[in-house]
Amino acid sequence: MKLPRISRMDLIKIGATIIGILILLMIFKDYLPQIKMMFDPSKRPQAIHEIRQHGAFDALLLMVLLFIGTVVPGIPVMPIAILAGLCFGTLFGTLINAISIGLGNLVAIHLISLFKRDVQKEYKHNRFADHLKNSKNPLMALVVGYSIPAIPSYLVSLQAANDERRFGNQLVQVAACLGTIPLALIYALGGNSLLAGKWLELLIVVIILLLFFLGADRFLKYLAG
């Protein structure tokens, strides 16, 4: 019986998934006392306070897990990024998400350039891929693509790898990093503003994101000359 051939990309996925599961177990073990306290209404405020007191080691674990999830397709990033916001607040959660996902996107672009043929087969008939490919403003399309949770970041990274020939590495990398900022903020908020009925806070965030996209568009056009 002939065994199925395992590609290098599949080996990377398997290795990254194993490492990700181990890190997730470490995080769960570290937060287990507070998780148990959350089921007791009288201890819930204390549990929330203690969750926010976790330090740099837990932040580093979350960053590594987010990085792996961004680099390797198939690992869900959203719940991890929302967890960062819940555990470390909106500001530090956004920083954790932006740094981890940003670095992950840059590494993903490089990996895709090495395994481009396999990735292109996977996303050959994807409507998001067609929109990105045919965009009149390719760099801004990357920023928006990375900013929308519904669009797989690996698909955007594939287009980014293709755009490097036209715009060069630096411009594409700037676009990739800019695109992670709104996404990091959205994940860090974790829907708390909407669920808590804080409409003013939500409105302010929407306005900030709109201003960000306008500024990012002008900045990229300026860099492109």
Automatic annotation (TrEMBL):
Family matches, as Pfam families: VTT_dom (PF09335)
UniProt keyword list: Membrane, Transmembrane, Transmembrane helix
Looking at the UniProt entry, the stretches that span the membrane are 12-32, 53-76, 82-115, 136-155, 167-187, 199-216
Q: Which InterPro entries match?
A: VTT_dom
* The UniProt record lists the keyword Cell cycle: no
**Source organism superkingdom:** Bacteria
Q: Which residues form the VTT domain?
A: 75-192
Q: What protein name is recorded for this chain?
A: VTT domain-containing protein
Which organism is the protein's source? Fructilactobacillus cliffordii
Per the UniProt record, the lineage of the source organism begins with: Bacteria, Bacillati, Bacillota, Bacilli, Lactobacillales
